[in-house]
Design brief:
single chain, about 200 residues
């Protein structure tokens, strides 16, 4: 019986490795494709049911798939994935949902969506528009501080600062407008520099 359990564990390990090889060849260029890939990785991270005393030979593979799921979900969100409801409730993500890294990603996504919603909110009142953009910029600064490598936060913050500067100019807040526009320019210059450096590394 113990030999059978060992054989089962070896077979599970083999299947895990085969599944990973297949998954790595699946197209995953868009945010939605990355999300689906993360969900599949997460489903493979679920511990296999075993009788008491059976060897847990697949524990390492399960952990590897959990880490891959978190990292792929992170890439999906960075690429623009914004379906908070799916991240919260998609059944395949259940095996990683209680991990601290997952909870951090979800909190970050919720704050990102809130900031982007404020930045896009329409209003006939220029002062209300400005207040919305300033609140969006505050949230984005917090996100950029926690996740400085995420280009999505930096780009949205730069756009928000530019909008703030334009609104402040219209409201004749010229000193504040100059500061906001300068910050937007500096941030966009930084983003372009980062992209150029990354392009050089890939050559």
């Amino acid at each position: 019986d113990y030999q059978r359990q060992l054989g089962d564990a070896a077979e599970i390990s083999r299947l895990f490795r085969a599944a990973r090889e297949v998954l790595e060849n699946i197209p995953h260029d868009t945010a939605d494709e990355l999300f689906e890939l993360a969900a599949i990785y997460a489903s493979l991270a679920a511990p296999a049911a075993k009788p008491d005393g059976a060897p847990k030979a697949d524990a390492k593979e399960s952990e590897e798939f959990a880490k891959l799921a978190i990292e792929t979900l992170r890439k999906s969100i960075a690429a623009g994935y914004c379906n908070v409801n799916a991240v919260k409730h998609y059944q395949l993500l259940e095996p990683i949902r209680q991990r601290p890294e997952f909870k951090d990603l979800l909190a970050s996504l919720e704050k990102t969506i809130e900031a982007e919603s404020l930045a896009k909110r329409e209003s006939k009142d220029e002062k209300q528009k400005l207040a919305d953009q300033q609140q969006a910029a505050k949230l984005l600064r917090e996100l950029a501080g926690k996740e400085p490598a995420e280009a999505r936060h930096q780009a949205t913050l730069a756009a928000s600062l530019h909008s703030i500067g334009v609104l402040q100019t219209g409201l004749k807040q010229f000193d504040e407008a100059e500061k906001s526009l300068q910050q937007a320019i500096e941030l966009r210059t930084k983003i372009r520099g980062t992209k150029s450096h990354e392009a050089e590394l890939t050559l």
